[in-house]
Specification:
This is Polymerase III, delta subunit protein. By secondary structure, this protein is of the alpha/beta class. The chain folds into two domains: 113 residues, P-loop containing nucleotide triphosphate hydrolases (Rossmann fold); 114 residues, Zinc Finger, Delta Prime, domain 3 (Up-down Bundle). It has eleven helices and five strands. The protein has a five-stranded parallel beta sheet with strand order 2-3-4-1-5, sandwiched between helices. Strand 3, helix 4 and strand 4 form a beta-alpha-beta unit. Helix 8 runs antiparallel to helix 10. The chain is elongated.
Amino acid sequence: MIYFFYGADSDARRRATENLLNRFSLEGEFALFQMGDLDLDLEKIEEFSSARGLFQKLLVVVINDVLSRTETENILVKHLPMLAESPNVFIVSEPRPHINFIHTAKKLALEAREFPLSKSQREPFNNFLVSDAFGRRDRKGAWLSLMRAVARGVSGEEITGVLFWQIKNMLLVKKSLRLGEGAPDNLNLKPFVFHKARDFAERFSESELQNATGALVDLIHLNRRRGEELLVGLELFLLKTL
């Protein structure tokens, strides 16, 4: 079984791990093994996944901050189904896993919790970097900005809100220009916002902007109704739309 704690607030992740270990200690004896980036042993992890019969008691394996290298993350994500089926406990605690790892781990984990930094704890990040790259139709730039935002602990809701606002303005300006009504005052937009949206809108057709707006609305609704991972959906949205 897997417990998955992720996010930039390392103190909160550590407390969550300690609370879980305290809970297990109240339920009976267990053997504890810890692995970090320097001593990660995938063969040992495979052994631990089926080793309960040897120890005759619960094994708890804490895997902490091991995904700094992409190749390690790609290998470990393939082991997650095996760990999920194990009678032993694997606590995976990571500050900045990639979106694909988050998506897979959340599906398989008995418990998955995110611990982002609070706004007061974060380094400043310009949320408009994602939406501006979208407006420039810069697929790589938008994706990289999304990854940087995730690394800084910016929530999917914040990024989606700014992106939706930007696309909505682009569509508004696009329609108004087609109808001959394109002026900042007519649209209740500040001149800077209007000119920026007009420049970006030239790179898209009106139907593309309508589809993009609809796709973002659907993404938000899926997140609220089904708990779909918003950041995973945002990544797919950027890659498909641009």
